[in-house]
């Protein structure tokens, strides 16, 4: 059986679906083939513990999607197909060893008052940063939303020079190159305020001392203060279900349980794909692979350009993640105070030194002795995810080694995740219990998802890397995934790479897919 399309897309993650929708809207006939039973990749939701409890498998925060250029273009259409958001006015907080806590809400006065309990000077600094954010945001979001080639980058720098002058532009570049610790230490005086923001770097492979990471704690802090956070009503998969419905309504096809085993190309041009069941599908204009770079060689073979093939083979992945999904009788009784029950995220990451130590341990292949844990409390804002009066907790342990070489605490002897999962999850839950006594007694159901299981379920999450590749400076901006290929192009004409491995990288903003589709469609 064969089929002919203008574009064939491999994988039904949000980036490929965004690309499929834009190309469909421009009159292309598209087909999306996904190996998993459901679309979504890392953005999916299910009853992973008990019936009636809906857990986000990996991604939970949809703020980037709601604020994206793609949503600006297609938001009304997606909402007609069932997309629903839930706004969050208390986005994130951190708890500390001394029993205190700090948090950011959309009320500037409330945030300032809470920060002032740590440092009056830092509260004033925060206020100045928030006031200046409207002027800084266009430069940062302009950079993150721009195609990453020399002409576009040159135009961006020209606009920045006009707006900021030479001195201001040089300061901006210095900020982009700074580590989280460098910027936070220069900007704030209290270690707890610094840790509150530094925790965001750990979401994206930027431990406190990694160059180029300052932008992410800054953006998350300012954006959450200014706009709050956005969750999906009923689960993050509201985005995926709406995307699939919109693509289908425009005549496209999205087929699951349909692994692609080969990208067909001849004469230097991609012409289609072969599926595991033997079907051949032809593509007259483009084959778009939403896969991790190392997987491209397995599907397409050598491209004829050694530099490209070698670059894909050595593409560097970030450390892994463990997910712990809990169905609970009630929200955690936080020892630091009941106000913490309002927050969508509570970070258990008490200091930059602890985060740096955890990162170093994980990079050495060790299970960290004190993991960084992100405690998601989505049912605070969206009670539809659990039976009445009950809740779900979304625990993301960042970071863990994909391959275990040892245990930093010297307690866990297992070297494979099948055996280490239980003891290490106990370590993470004991940390939660320390800050919220009684939480474990209220657990009704539990599901541990190891890095190995994350990769087995979605091969793009190599070693449990949920961001599909490190975002360190040598693999970001013009170099994501490889110099000269930040637009997703490959040496094979008509074959394109998309997804979090391609500029502008990870997150739910659909930037890689939308930028590629705009380039292919010419608008």
pLDDT under 50 segments (min length 5)? none
Average pLDDT number: 95
Beta strand %: 15-25%
Computed over alpha carbons, the radius of gyration is: 22 Å
Provide the helix percentage: 25-40%
Structure description:
- It is a single chain.
- The chain is of the alpha/beta class and 523 residues long.
- The protein contains 16 helices and 20 strands.
- Strands 1, 2, 9, 10, 11, 12 and 20 form a seven-stranded mixed beta sheet that branches. A seven-stranded mixed beta sheet has the order 7-6-14-16-17-13-19, sandwiched between helices.
- A hairpin with a 2-residue loop joins strand 10 and strand 11.
- Helix 1 runs parallel beside helix 10 and helix 4 packs across helix 5.
Quick tags:
single chain; 523 residues; alpha/beta; seven-stranded mixed beta sheet; 16 helices; 20 strands; globular
Write the layout of secondary structure elements.
Blueprint: E1 2-10, H1 14-25, E2 30-33, E3 45-46, E4 55-56, H2 63-66, H3 69-80, E5 85-88, E6 92-95, E7 101-104, H4 108-116, H5 120-144, H6 150-177, H7 180-187, H8 191-198, H9 215-227, E8 229-232, H10 237-249, E9 253-255, E10 260-266, E11 269-275, E12 280-289, H11 293-300, H12 306-313, E13 320-328, E14 345-348, H13 352-363, E15 366-367, E16 373-376, E17 391-400, E18 406-407, H14 417-435, E19 443-449, H15 451-457, E20 495-497, H16 511-521
Parallel strand pairs: 1-2, 1-12, 2-9, 6-14, 12-20, 15-18
Antiparallel strand pairs: 3-4, 5-8, 6-7, 10-11, 11-12, 13-17, 13-19, 14-16, 16-17
């Amino acid at each position: 059986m064969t089929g002919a399309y203008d574009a064939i897309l491999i994988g039904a993650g949000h980036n490929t679906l965004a690309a499929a929708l834009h190309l469909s809207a421009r009159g292309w006939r598209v087909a999306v083939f996904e190996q998993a039973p459901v679309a979504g990749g890392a953005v999916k939701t299910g009853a992973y513990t008990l019936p009636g409890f809906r857990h986000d498998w990996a991604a939970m925060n949809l703020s980037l999607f709601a604020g994206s250029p793609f949503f600006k273009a297609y938001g009304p259409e997606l909402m007609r197909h069932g997309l629903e958001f839930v706004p969050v006015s208390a986005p994130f907080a951190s708890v500390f060893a001394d029993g205190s806590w700090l948090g950011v809400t959309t009320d500037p006065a409330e945030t300032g008052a809470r920060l002032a309990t740590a440092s009056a000077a830092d509260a004033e600094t925060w206020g100045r940063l928030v006031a200046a954010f409207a002027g800084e945001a266009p430069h940062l979001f302009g950079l993150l939303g721009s195609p990453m080639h020399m002409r576009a980058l040159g135009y961006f720098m020209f606009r920045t020079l006009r707006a900021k002058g030479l001195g201001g532009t040089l300061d901006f570049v210095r900020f982009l190159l700074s580590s989280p610790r460098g910027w936070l230490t220069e900007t704030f005086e209290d270690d707890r305020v610094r840790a509150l923001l530094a925790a965001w770097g750990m979401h994206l492979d930027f431990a406190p001392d990694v160059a180029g990471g300052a932008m992410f704690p800054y953006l998350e802090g300012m954006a959450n203060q200014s706009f709050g956070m956005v969750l999906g009503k009923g689960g993050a998969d509201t985005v995926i279900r709406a995307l699939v419905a919109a693509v289908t309504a425009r005549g496209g096809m999205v087929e699951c349980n349909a692994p692609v085993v080969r990208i067909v190309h001849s004469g230097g041009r991609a012409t289609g794909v072969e599926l595991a069941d033997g079907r051949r599908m032809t593509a007259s204009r483009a084959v778009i692979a939403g896969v991790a770079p190392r997987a491209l060689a397995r599907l397409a073979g050598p491209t004829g350009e050694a530099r490209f093939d070698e670059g894909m083979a050595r593409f560097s992945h970030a450390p892994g993640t463990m997910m712990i999904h809990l169905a609970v009788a009630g929200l955690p009784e936080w020892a630091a105070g009941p106000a913490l029950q309002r927050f969508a995220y509570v970070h258990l990451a008490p200091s930059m030194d602890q985060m740096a130590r955890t990162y170093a341990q994980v990079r050495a292949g060790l299970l960290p002795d004190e993991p960084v844990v992100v405690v998601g409390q989505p049912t605070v804002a969206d009670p539809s995810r659990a039976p009445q009066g009950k809740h779900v907790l979304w625990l993301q342990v960042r970071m863990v080694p994909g391959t275990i070489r040892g245990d930093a605490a010297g307690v866990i002897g297992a070297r494979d995740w099948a055996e280490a999962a239980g003891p290490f999850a106990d370590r993470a839950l004991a940390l939660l219990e320390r800050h919220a006594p009684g939480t474990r007694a209220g657990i009704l159901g539990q599901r541990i998802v190891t890095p190995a299981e994350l990769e087995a379920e979605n091969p793009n999450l190599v070693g449990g890397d949920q961001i599909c590749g490190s975002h360190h400076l040598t693999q970001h901006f013009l170099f994501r995934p490889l110099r000269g290929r930040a637009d997703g192009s490959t040496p094979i004409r008509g074959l394109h790479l998309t997804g979090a491995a391609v500029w502008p990288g990870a997150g739910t903003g659909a930037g890689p897919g939308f930028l590629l589709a705009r380039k292919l469609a010419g608008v």
